[in-house]
């Protein structure tokens, strides 16, 4: 994408996520490399969503029954997350979106960055198989809402259309 990506003022979460998803489509629709697409997706979220201190992906390694750090933006992060630990492990294990208003209250939370106060994690699944998770952290408590979940679910749907997942595994 040759034009600089800019933040815009929006009145609703739906408008914001429509904008984010349009920018994502422009970034990845013609790029065949899945790693490049995930890297740009993480950078886009980090740039366009307010109050994030981390945005990125953990990718499933079935032989190890663990998630391994993928493309991200933010401080260095935990490299491996077992499926029985943390919010990311819970989302991968259950196949459900996890919105955690206060990470201190989540049993088994993994504190990769002590500044993180809230988190949203969406499982990346195809045909019943866990591919990984999309993880966003914020230094603010109660940063993420069900509207964020809906907008990010559309973001993940766009990723599924254009990311060649099989090339990553």
TrEMBL record:
Gene Ontology annotations for the cellular component aspect, listed alphabetically: cytosol
Membrane spanning stretches: none
InterPro entries for the chain: FRMsr_CS, GAF, GAF-like_dom_sf, Phosphatase_reg/MetRdx
Gene3D superfamilies membership: 3.30.450.40
One Pfam family this sequence matches: GAF_2
PANTHER family: FREE METHIONINE-R-SULFOXIDE REDUCTASE, GAF/PUTATIVE CYTOSKELETAL PROTEIN
Family: Belongs to the free Met sulfoxide reductase family.
Protein name per UniProt: GAF domain-containing protein
């Amino acid at each position: 994408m040759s034009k600089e990506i800019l933040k815009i003022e929006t009145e609703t979460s739906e408008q914001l996520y429509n904008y984010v998803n349009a920018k994502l489509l422009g970034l990845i629709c013609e790029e065949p490399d899945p790693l490049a697409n995930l890297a740009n997706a993480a950078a886009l979220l980090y740039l366009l969503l307010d109050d994030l201190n981390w945005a990125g992906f953990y990718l499933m390694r079935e032989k190890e029954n663990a998630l391994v750090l993928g493309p991200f933006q933010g401080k260095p992060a935990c490299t491996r997350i077992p499926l029985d630990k943390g919010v990311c492990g819970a989302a991968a294990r259950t196949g459900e979106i996890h919105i955690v208003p206060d990470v201190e209250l989540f049993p088994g939370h993994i504190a990769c960055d002590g500044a993180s106060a809230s988190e949203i994690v969406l499982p990346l699944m195809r045909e019943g198989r866990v591919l990984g998770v999309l993880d966003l952290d914020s230094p603010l408590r109660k940063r993420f809402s069900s509207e964020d979940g809906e907008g990010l679910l559309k973001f993940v749907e766009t990723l599924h259309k254009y990311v060649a997942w099989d090339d990553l595994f």
